Amino acid sequence: xxxxxxxxxxxxxxxxxxxxxxxxxxxxxxxxxxxxxxxxxxxxxxxxxxxxxxxxxxxxxxxxxxxxxxxxxxxxxxxxxxxxxxxxxxxxxxxxxxxxxxxxxxxxxxxxxxxxxxxxxxxxxxxxxxxxxxxxxxxxxxxxxxxxxxxxxxxxxxxxxxxxxxxxxxxxxxxxxxxxxxxxxxxxxxxxxxxxxxxxxxxxxxxxxxxxxxxxxxxxxxxxxxxxxxxxxxxxxxxxxxxxxxxxxxxxxxxxxxxxxxxxxxxxxxxxxxxxxxx
Length: 279
Description:
Layout: H1 2-35, E1 37-42, E2 45-46, E3 50-53, E4 56-58, H2 60-72, E5 75-80, H3 83-91, E6 97-103, H4 106-109, E7 113-114, E8 119-128, E9 144-148, H5 153-166, E10 174-178, H6 181-189, E11 195-199, H7 200-209, E12 214-230, H8 235-250, H9 253-261
Parallel strand pairs: 1-5, 1-6, 9-10, 9-11
Antiparallel strand pairs: 2-3, 3-4, 6-12, 7-12, 8-11, 8-12
């Protein structure tokens, strides 16, 4: 009888191991369908891509996300998190997907699996409209410049600072880093900093919402595409999202939502947008 009990217990363990291995083999997409919920990480402070309005996360990315989640037929749990914790969080398995605007660059492509682009941007330099001393990015010698901590703009500004010094200038007086881009808008308007760098779509919205307060004096660095991110182990989920983005592109829905939220269209190519050796 004792041997039979041991055999039964072993059989239960083996069955659990087999079930676990089958779940892993099915991938994250099937796991999400089985659990009936997808958990998404978002920084809702990048208007109009994603932001909070009347207590709800809305924006261009939210329209895309709702389409995909409805197609999956699962519940959406969307977490609003600081950008600095978003990418480490998805790698740590705290959520399934990063559905916030992440610039595609070579360094990130070594760690994360990008989806198809959902937009593009350049790094705009924005100053106060009444500041006659700043009329181009070359006028930032001795100025206090700001952007978001750990954003793709931070290394671009660090490189621009060095370029100014290489040209014989003094470089920035200081590069201030804030937790979120809206914090930089406030800092600029209040005179805490002399200029900020934000994405061109965000700059366009800022200029229209607060006219005669800011001015765009140029761009620095290279233009880039924006995309969402999954873990490299979850390419099944990434590929599913890519297929949905292709559907939206082909149906003209992405352009429709870009006009709705930005007032202009952006480039969202199906290939050629990833650095070499990306996932």
